[in-house]
Write a structure and sequence with these properties.
This protein is an alpha/beta fold. The protein has nine helices and 14 strands. It has a six-stranded mixed beta sheet with strand order 1-2-3-4-5-6, with helices on one face. A hairpin with a 2-residue loop joins strand 11 and strand 12.
């Protein structure tokens, strides 16, 4: 049976993603254990693995409580301090190698690690079987704040994700989509696809339905942080900074700063 992916909500706007079949579950970024434990009990599932994308507490805070109930491997970034990790992962350039992978035998699923620094210094993503779990780096129509990295790093990380196949399903860590779209429309008011997306997302949010997963194709068409080469975005970013911006990194840095104050 192919696994499917279910969101468990935590805090105000976090999604804890569960990979599951009829018997097993793996959990990505369990910031809080209790909604995960409720879900596992209700669905009579056995936890088989925990995967973390970065060290922030709203992504790892539930690890210890889950480990008290289930003795499972905990995958996470090699270069971040997450005390509960059992498997420290980094990107492996050899795509055939097992190194740099989280293998979940219950689902015959191998998730490859991508290094995507920017939001935090050691942030990683998991990619496999057309699924991308990217934590707080790429959001639907947005991207994470630069807490520990540079604009250059974040641009490279986002480009790495944008290079994945168009149909890749994007599972990120927060429900920020509508707010992100409001900002994106300010930066790129002429983008038709963005207007359509806003209507779709408004409909979903009215029904309290998650706006995720997104796709890489959708993000390339509507996410301003992946569109720093677009003339309209360059123009508006330059207006915001009060000086002409020419390269992609400075356009990115300008709109990231703009979003922080939006
Ligand atoms: Zn974070
Ligand atoms: Fe977060």
């Amino acid at each position: 049976m192919t696994p499917h992916i279910v969101p468990v909500r935590a805090f105000t706007d976090n999604y804890i993603w569960i990979i599951r079949d009829h018997f097993h579950a793996a959990v990505i970024d369990p910031g809080d254990a209790s909604p995960v434990l409720d879900y596992l009990r209700q669905e009579k599932l056995q936890l088989v693995a925990i995967l973390n994308t970065h060290h922030h507490n709203d992504h790892v805070g539930g690890n210890a409580s889950l480990l008290r109930e289930f003795s499972v491997p905990v995958y996470g970034p090699e270069h971040e301090s997450i005390p509960t990790l059992t498997h420290r992962l980094k990107e492996c350039s050899d795509k055939e190698s097992e190194e740099g992978c989280a293998y979940l035998p219950e689902f015959s699923l191998s998730l490859r690690v991508l290094d995507i620094p920017g939001h935090t210094a050691g942030h990683i993503a998991y990619y496999g079987a057309n699924l991308l779990f990217c934590g707080d780096t790429l959001f639907a129509c947005g991207c994470g704040r630069l807490f520990e990295g540079t604009a250059r790093q974040m641009v490279d990380s986002l480009e790495k994700l944008a290079d994945l196949p168009d149909k890749t399903l994007v599972y990120c860590g927060h429900e920020y989509t509508l707010n992100n779209i409001r900002f994106a429309r300010t930066v790129e008011p002429g983008n038709q696809a963005l207007m359509e997306r806003e209507r779709e997302v408004e409909k979903l949010r009215k029904q309290n339905t998650p706006t995720l997963p997104s796709t890489i194709e959708m993000e390339k068409a509507t996410n301003p942080f992946l569109r720093c080469d677009e003339p309209e975005i360059i123009r508006n970013a330059s207006k915001y900074s009060g000086k002409p911006l020419t390269d992609r990194v400075s356009v990115f840095a300008a709109i990231r700063d703009w979003k922080n104050h939006f």
